[in-house]
Every structure is written in structure tokens, then in C-alpha cells.
Amino acid sequence: MIRTLISCALALGITASCTQTDSSDTSVTEKALATIDVQSNRAQLQDLRFAQQAQAGVPTLKFGIEDLDIVTQAVPDTMRDGIQTWLIAGGMSFSLQDGFLRSTRGLGDDLMAADIAQTRAAVLGLKAGQATRTMAYIGAEDTIEKRSFTCEITVRGPRELTINATKTATTLVAEDCSGLTGTFGNLYWVKTATGKVVQSRQWGSDRIGPIVMRIGRNQ
Hints:
Layout: H1 2-12, H2 27-33, H3 42-55, E1 61-65, E2 70-80, E3 83-88, E4 92-97, E5 100-105, E6 111-115, H4 117-124, E7 129-138, E8 144-163, E9 166-179, E10 182-191, E11 197-203, E12 210-215
Antiparallel strand pairs: 1-2, 1-12, 2-3, 3-4, 4-5, 6-7, 7-8, 8-9, 9-10, 10-11, 11-12
């Protein structure tokens, strides 16, 4: 299952081949600043919500952090402007837009916000080319550190996955990113029948490392 997925993702490998570009987009910083102040009981409330959703039999997402040896499931919480928040037991959460990581909470060195518009368009369109993305993290004294990356999108071709005991035709798309603060790579498996991301391996942060996700029960 997800451990097999992690091994598969690791075996594919990532090679960065991009250059740094500047971004004038301030929306990422503004969104990140708006999320710093949270209530002290947020983790307890999230765990209660997680239990309620899990018992209700809602669609789930398989979730794994390779470097931290975390393998679990996530349940959906709120949806706003096309961005879905997912909950993990322990007061942790993350948000996705069409399968693309937008933020993490409670995992350490969290991704506060990400501008993935160009990446999303290229990957879902199965188009090779270059994309610029911006990612915001909390820096010293709760300041926002915005990092810009230039990413090379390549279409690696057809891949067959077994999801929920069903063979699924997908296309594997790779994103190799480079910036002044480092390099990372993402992998996306786009389902042929729907054009949606059904499995991915996406960079969280220097501390979190790669996050592996795959659609789970009731999807």
C-alpha cells in the first residue's frame, strides 16, 4: 500500500535542472501572515473533527512522510475556494488544490502557503515546460520567508497503478525545482480517465522532506 508507494517514489529519483527567478507576487506572503495566530486548543478541536469524519466513512487520503517515518490516513475537513483541508490525528493538517500541496500545519517547519498555479496548469495539462512557484515558510521571530523556484516540468509517460484493488491508468509527470535556498523534486500521477492527480510525492519543507499521498477509501 502506501509503504510500497513510498518505495516506488524513491526509486524513481529526482534531478534538479532549473535556475532561480524572482517573483513579485505578494499574495503568498499575505495569506501566510494571516494564518500565524491560532487558538491554543486548535489541536484538540482538530482531533475531535478527525474522529467524527473518520467514523462517518468519508473519503480518505493515504498520507506518508518519508523522512519522519509517518504513515497514516487523512480525512477531509473544510473546502474553500477550491482548496481542501485534510486532517491527520495529532492536530496536524494540510491543504490541497486539485491534489497539489498548498500548506501544512503542525508538522514542523510548516509550509504556510504556496503559489502553484503554473505548476498545476502544466501538470494537469500534461505539458512539458518551465514553471515558477513561490513557497512561504515561517522564519525567525515569526516572520515570513518567501522562497521562489524555477521548475522544469517533464512528462515521463504512462504508468499503471493499483488503487483500491483496481488497476488504474495514469501518466507520470515530474517537477524539478531549483532556487537560491535549494532544490527539490515532485512527482504526480495523473489519472487518464479523469485528468486528476491520484498519487503524488511532493516537497513539504527542509524538515518535513517529501510527502507521499494517494487517494484512498471511497474515492
